[in-house]
Design goal:
2 copies of one chain form a homodimer.
Chain A (H helix, E strand, L loop, with lengths): L2 E3 L3 H8 L9 H8 L3 E5 L4 E3 L7 E7 L1 E7 L5 E8 L3 E2 L1 H5 L8 E4 L3 E7 H10 L1 H27 L2 H16 L6 E2 L4 H7 L4 H11 L4 E4 L2 E4 L2 H5 L8 H17 L17
Antiparallel strand pairs in A: 1-2, 2-9, 3-8, 4-7, 4-9, 5-6, 5-8, 10-12, 11-12
Chain A binds a DNA duplex through helix 8.
DNA sequence: CGGCGTATTGACGCACCTCAAGGTAAGTGG
DNA sequence: CCACTTACCTTGAGGTGCGTCAATACGCCG
C-alpha cells in the first residue's frame, strides 16, 4: 500500500523535471501531479503485485524499485530496476490487459508519486507532447530490451555484466574511474538473468577487460579493452571514448592523480 | 530497395484493416496511405539494413519479413518475424536515434506499404486514436518481449518452443489440432535465440508435452499436458482451454473425425 | 558474542553450443 | 528418367558455460 505523505515543494519540484514531462508547461504538469498523491513505501513493501488491477502510474522520487515476476514454477525474475526519475507502470498502462504482470517492490525506502492511470491516459489522449514522450520512453526501453536479449543470447555472462556496468555508469552519470554499485549484487545478477554465483565468479574475469570490481566498488581501468565487449548500440562506446579523451587530456596536463580520484561525479548526460 | 508497384484496391483494402489503424476513419487512413507507396521485395532482398536512416514505416501486406541484427562478433540474431498485417519500424520510429538498429529482410516475396516516417509522426502528433494505437502496439510488444526474456532465462529450450508454437497458433489463428509451420525451422530457431540443432533435438521432446511435430506439421494432441509449460501471460491457456472445450463438445456430439480435420480456420482473437 | 543477510568459492551435472557427418527433398541439367 | 546440385534438416560426439547444492567467509547490528 504505502502511506500517504503530504506533498511538499521538493516532491513537486522533482516530479516536474522528470524526462516524461519534458516539454509540458508547468500548468500541464501540475494539473497531472495535483491529481496524484505522494506515497512512502518502506523497504520490502510493494507498490503493487502481480495480478493487481492497473490503477496508477508511479513516478519514483527517491529510492529503488524492483520489478519482478514470479514464474509458474515459483522462481523470481527481476525484469527491471527503477530509481529516482523513472516511472513505473507506464508500459502496462497501455498494454492490453488490465492487470499488472509484474510486482513492484521497494528495495529500500521509496517515495513515489502515484498518478491515476485513467487521468494519465486521458491527458495522453489530448496532449500531444505527453503522448509523444510516452511513445519515446516506451519505444526506447523496448529497443534497449531487444539489445539485452541479443546480449544474453550471444554473450557470456562476463560480457553481459561488462555491458551492464557501462550502461549503469552512463545512465546514472557515475565517474567511470570509480563508483559504487547502487544496488546489491544479488539484485543486479537477477536483473541480468543470471545466478548470484555466476555473477560473482564473472567479476574477476572482468579485470582482464579493464574493469576492476572490488566489493561494491567498480573502476574502468582500460577503456580500450572495455570497448571490445560493448555492443554498438548502447552509446556506451561514445561515452567511454569521451572519458578516455578526458583522461588523456588530463595526463597531458600532468594531472597524474586523476585516475585514482574516486569522486563520484553525478553528471547526467 | 524494392520495386514500386501500382497501388490497387486489394492493397488499400488490406492496409485499411490492420490493427494499427483501428478506430481511424477511412478518410484518415487514406490520407496516410496515399502519402505512401506499395513496394515489392523479392526473396532475400532487404527493406532496410542496420545503419540506414529511419525514413519509413512499413505495413506488410504479403509475405514474411525477418528482423535481424548482426552482432559485433559477426553473428546474426533474429529479433522478430513480421507477416501480413504487421508493421515494421514502428518502434524505431519513436526511439531516440535516427538509424535502424536492425535489418529487415524479405524471407519470401514481400509486398509492403512504405509510409513516410515524418508523416506518420506528424499524424500521430495530432491524431489521438493513431497515437493511442501506436502506444498500445509498442507497449504490448514490449511486454511480450519481457515475457520472452523470462522464458529464455528460466525455461529449457523445449518449453520455449512449446510456448512459441502455442503463441504462433493463437496469433495466426491456426487450428491447434494441426497446422503447418509458416516459416523454416532455422528461422524459428534463430527467432527463439537457439541453434537449429537445439531446436531440432527439442522437437521429439515436445511429444511428451502433447505437441506432435512431424516435418513442418504441428499438432496439439493433449491440451492438458501443454498447459503445464505455458506461462500465465500469453493468454494461450485460455485459448487452449477454449479449444479443448470445443473438442469435448464435438466429441459429445459424436463428431469423431473432428481431430483429423485440418482446416486452418483463420480466426483472429 | 551470536545471529543474520550477503557474498565468495568449490564440486558436479546438465543443457546448450560447436563441429561434423549424414540424410531428405526439391530443383537443374543432361 | 536419372545423376547432380543445393537447401534444409537431422543426428552424433565432444566441449563448456552456467545452474545447482553446499560450505565458508564477511560485514552489520542487537
Amino acid at each position: 500500500m504505502g502511506s500517504r505523505l503530504s506533498m511538499n515543494g521538493a516532491h513537486l519540484g522533482f516530479a516536474r523535471n522528470i524526462p516524461l514531462f519534458r516539454g509540458l508547461t508547468d500548468a500541464e504538469k501540475d494539473s497531472l501531479l495535483k491529481d496524484g498523491g505522494i506515497y512512502a513505501y518502506p523497504r520490502r513493501n510493494t507498490l503493487f503485485i502481480q495480478g493487481d488491477a492497473i490503477s496508477s502510474l508511479y513516478v519514483v522520487c527517491a529510492g529503488t524499485v524492483q520489478l519482478s515476476r514470479s514464474t509458474p514454477d515459483g522462481r523470481e525474475v527481476t525484469t527491471d530496476i527503477r530509481s529516482a526519475g523513472d516511472t513505473v507502470g507506464e508500459k502496462e498502462m497501455f498494454s492490453s490487459g488490465s492487470r499488472h504482470q509484474v510486482s513492484a517492490i521497494a528495495v529500500d525506502h521509496v517515495e513515489a508519486f502515484k498518478l491515476p492511470a485513467e487521468r494519465v491516459r486521458a491527458v495522453a489522449g489530448s496532449n500531444v507532447v505527453l503522448s509523444r514522450n510516452l511513445l519515446a520512453s516506451i519505444a526506447q526501453s523496448a529497443t534497449q530490451r531487444e539489445v539485452e536479449m541479443e546480449h544474453r543470447a550471444t554473450m557470456k555472462s562476463s560480457q553481459v555484466i561488462s555491458c551492464y556496468l557501462q550502461h549503469l555508469c552512463v545512465s546514472r552519470g557515475f565517474d567511470p574511474r570509480g563508483f559504487t554499485l547502487p544496488y546489491k549484487k544479488s539484485l543486479i545478477a537477477s536483473r541480468l538473468g543470471m545466478e548470484l554465483e555466476t555473477f560473482s565468479r564473472a567479476l574477476p574475469v572482468l579485470k582482464e577487460n579493464g574493469i576492476a570490481v572490488e566489493g561494491a566498488h567498480v573502476a574502468f581501468r582500460d577503456f580500450d579493452a572495455v570497448d571490445d565487449h560493448t555492443c554498438g548500440l548502447c552509446s556506451v562506446n561514445d561515452f567511454c571514448r569521451a572519458h578516455r579523451k578526458i583522461r588523456e587530456e588530463r595526463k597531458a596536463e600532468g594531472d597524474e592523480h586523476g585516475p585514482e580520484n574516486h569522486s563520484c561525479a553525478v553528471q547526467r548526460i
